[in-house]
Amino acid sequence: MPKRKKDAKTDSVQRELTKRLLRLKVNGEIKEVATETSKTLLEVLREDLGLTGTKHGCELGECGTCAVLLDGEPVLSCLLLGVESEDVEITTVEGLMEEGRPYPLQRAFADLGAAQCGYCIPGILLTAKALLDKNPHPSRDEIREALSGNLCRCTGYTKILQAVELAAGGGQAR
């Protein structure tokens, strides 16, 4: 007996059966989204919630491009399922704005020209924010260690390190 080909309708029905309503707290707001249970948090944020600041990188947990904060801790959203992200505060780069103004780290990166293409910067900003929230005055080595999981292919990291120092120093690069 010949194999029966799946048609688009069958595919659609199967996807609907694997969907679940998620209630996520993202950037201080409760968001409800019906999504496939197999989607990563990265995919839920970008595809279902339209928060495209979080970037697809390696999708293997090796580059840090997709980093977001869960309850203030940096996590790689490509390695976490969306369904595992309920009951925590999710912060994306879009959530860094303060009263319509760029967050101090964002200003420091802009002031020092620390971003070239900018693709890795959302993950770096969030990882640096987590560091500064725990340690407001980190050393260069502590900054380097905190950002060690974030790869940038455009810069030599010097401006990135200086921008974090600038934000930590409240206006003076060390």
Task: Explain this structure.
The mean pLDDT is 90. The chain is built from 6 helices and 5 strands, in the order αββαβββαααα. Strand 1 and strand 2 form a beta hairpin. Helix 3 crosses helix 6 (158-168). The chain folds into 2 domains: 20-96, Roll (Ubiquitin-like (UB roll)); 104-168, Orthogonal Bundle (DNA polymerase, domain 1), CATH 1.10.150. The protein is α+β, with helices and mostly antiparallel strands. It has a 5-stranded mixed β-sheet, sandwiched between helices.
Q: Helix count? A: 6
Radius of gyration: 19 Å
First-last Cα distance? 74 Å
Topology order in helix (H) and strand (E) letters: HEEHEEEHHHH
CATH C-level class of the largest domain is Alpha Beta
Spatial sequence of strands, sheet with the most strands: 2-1-5-3-4
What would the principal axes of the Cα set say about the shape?
elongated
Helix content: 25-40%
| CATH level 3 topology of the largest domain | Ubiquitin-like (UB roll)
At a glance:
By secondary structure, the chain is of the alpha+beta class. The protein contains 6 helices and 5 strands; from the N terminus they run αββαβββαααα. The protein has 2 domains: 20-96, Beta-grasp domain (Ubiquitin-like (UB roll)); 104-168, [2Fe-2S]-binding domain (DNA polymerase, domain 1, Orthogonal Bundle), CATH 1.10.150.120.
Which key terms come to mind for this protein?
single chain; 174 residues; alpha+beta; Ubiquitin-like (UB roll); DNA polymerase, domain 1; 2 domains; five-stranded mixed sheet; 34% helix
